[in-house]
Automatic annotation (TrEMBL):
Keywords: Cytoplasm, GTP-binding, Nucleotide-binding, Protein biosynthesis
GO biological process: regulation of translational termination
Protein name according to UniProt: Peptide chain release factor 3
Compartments reported by the entry: Cytoplasm
Source species: Ferrimicrobium acidiphilum DSM 19497
Length: 530
């Protein structure tokens, strides 16, 4: 029994050192730069500049494809693990799509918090709003980093209002700028009242010299800028916009830091906040609402599947977030959906394009299982005591296209691709119950169609073409409701691969009329049940 206690103690201790989070931002706000600077400050890389220049990405059809081609360090990998202070940091990548997409959502189910990066010149941008809203709706604690203070931008006070109004999370500045964006001199740390002077480092390659200056000295040296910043801090104190750990953990407030990722300024404070503020992994609830304690036998769920990451190997990796227990490479896992056992001999962890074998992992860590062809997104895996985690809610898709293979001779490749890409969750594949036999692809973002078509061609050798459909809105319904509603004109009933029934409407107005005529039916909200 003693060994069990020792084992459990070690698992809890290791879990408590984990910080698992994602950086979310609008493209160009500085996510890549910040990721790299985190690695620099953690000592995981010696010098910044290792992230490959993503040349030509501005006009490529998507970051995803550009990343496919370049596969540089860090940003393109699913999970980066590095140590900082006495913690093990797991930084999960969210796809840099311009549209919100389901992949991002799934990654967010596997993290314990997010760092939201905003460009001070742009604030909260419309295209990414949904992403931020989703974090709020998941109740994920959010740290905000206001980036690019070295350049002209908007008033930080105004941005605080914008964040609260648009995302519904109240920012509580921890550091506050002295000087205005573009004429930025440094920050006041509202916890200590001290001043840290901003100095440009040589192209941000090395750690920024962070000169701490006493408040009274700063007041003399900075003059009017100091007075303004101090006044603004007074205002923030007066309205109670100060960090509160409890409301942060509830996802209601967001500690805010300002800086310039490119110049390394504010990076260390932010990384310290990741360690000090972000919660360590907590026990997850299973499908019955019971929590599975962190030291329970090994369990985890698949949050991402990626095939053909390495064209030379044509492999298939399922990324699993460990929820409880200790993972040791080679352990045999049971796949909850099929009851089959699964070998983990080839488990890997990823750092940039280097894949290394993972030997042990603890709650909060990510393990990549190679050649895990049977696994699907959301699937649970466990050792010893069975568990099923709640299925991922799937977004009610908003875009629909019928797809067909151009060359009927490639029908087999087309079907294989369709099956694979659906399994990976690239998009949803629907079929009409009676009617046109061609599949209808459903997505929440335009990008999903582009990725589908690109991968069909390049990985499966099937050129495809899209045909328009009259559908604009979809709702998940029960088989019972479907029987009555499916016959209404302007409404079509389709089935997803997992058996879920969806009603497709030609317009939002059509949906509204149907909802009005059938108040007894629950049409769900943003999310359709998975
Ligand atoms: P991502 O699309 O969010 O990953 O953004 P990147 O990290 O690729 O940054 C987009 C552009 O903004 C790049 O040209 C960066 O060099 C630049 N950038 C990032 N951080 C800063 C900053 O603090 N100041 C300035 N002036 N530029 C920055």
């Amino acid at each position: 029994m003693l060994t069990e206690e020792v084992e459990s103690g070690e698992i809890l201790k290791e879990a408590a050192r984990r910080r698992t989070f994602a950086i979310i931002s609008h493209p160009d706000a500085g996510k890549t730069t910040l990721t790299e600077k985190f690695l620099l400050y953690a000592g995981a890389i010696a010098e910044a500049g290792a992230v490959k220049a993503r040349t030509g990405r501005r006009d490529t059809r998507s970051d995803w494809m550009a990343m496919e081609q370049e596969r540089g360090i860090s940003v393109t990998s699913t999970a980066l693990q590095f140590e900082y202070r006495d913690c093990v940091i797991n930084l999960l990548d969210t796809p840099g799509h311009r549209d919100f997409s389901e992949d991002t959502y799934r990654v967010l189910t596997a993290v314990d918090a997010v760092v939201m990066v905003l460009d001070v010149a742009k604030g909260v941008e419309a295209q990414t709003l949904k992403l931020f809203e989703v974090c709020r709706s998941l109740g994920l604690p959010m740290i905000t980093f206001l980036n690019k203070l070295d350049r002209p931008g908007r008033s930080p006070l105004e941005l605080l209002d914008e964040i609260e109004a648009k995302i519904g999370v109240r920012p509580t500045p921890v550091t506050w700028p002295v000087g205005i964006p573009g004429e930025f001199h440094g920050v006041i740390d509202r916890r200590t009242g001290g001043f840290t002077r901003f100095e440009r480092s040589v192209r941000g390659k090395t750690l920024a010299p962070e000169v701490e200056v006493d408040a009274s000295v700063a007041a003399t040296e900075e003059g009017g800028d100091w007075t303004n910043a101090a006044d603004e801090c007074g205002l923030l104190d007066a309205v109670g916009a100060s960090h509160d750990q409890e409301s942060f953990l509830e996802g209601k407030t967001s500690p805010l830091f300002v800086g310039s990722a490119m110049n390394n300024f504010g990076v260390r404070s932010l990384l310290d906040a990741v360690v000090d503020l972000i919660p360590s992994p907590r026990p997850r609830r299973d499908v019955d609402g019971q929590t599975r304690s962190l030291d329970a036998p090994l369990s985890g769920f698949v949050f991402k599947i990626q095939a053909n990451m390495d064209p030379a190997h044509r492999d298939h990796v399922a990324f699993v977030r460990v929820c409880s227990g200790r993972f040791v490479r080679g352990v045999s896992l049971t796949h909850a959906a099929t009851g089959r056992t699964f070998s983990t001999k080839y488990a890997s962890s990823l750092f940039g394009s280097d894949r290394s074998t993972v030997e042990v992992a603890f709650p909060g860590d990510v393990v990549g299982l190679v050649n895990a062809g049977e696994l699907r997104i959301g699937d649970a895996l466990y050792a010893d005591s069975p568990v099923v985690f709640p299925s991922f809610p799937q977004f009610a898709p908003e875009l629909f296209r019928r797809v067909r293979v151009k060359d009927p001779g490639r029908a087999k490749q087309f079907r294989r691709g369709l099956d694979q890409l659906e399994r990976e969750g690239v998009l949803q594949v629907l079929y009409e119950l009676d009617g046109d036999p061609l599949p209808v692809l459903a997505a929440v973002g335009q990008m999903q169609f582009e990725v589908f078509q690109y991968r069909m061609e390049h990985e499966f050798g099937a050129l495809t073409e899209y045909l328009s459909t009259p559908y604009r809105v979809a709702r998940v319904v029960t088989a019972e409701d479907a029987a009555t509603l499916g016959r209404i004109p302007g409404v079509r009933l389709l089935r997803r691969g997992d058996g879920t029934l969806l009603l497709l409407f030609e317009s939002a107005i059509r949906l509204q009329t149907v909802m009005r005529d059938h108040p007894e039916v629950d049409f769900g909200a943003l999310l359709g049940s998975g």
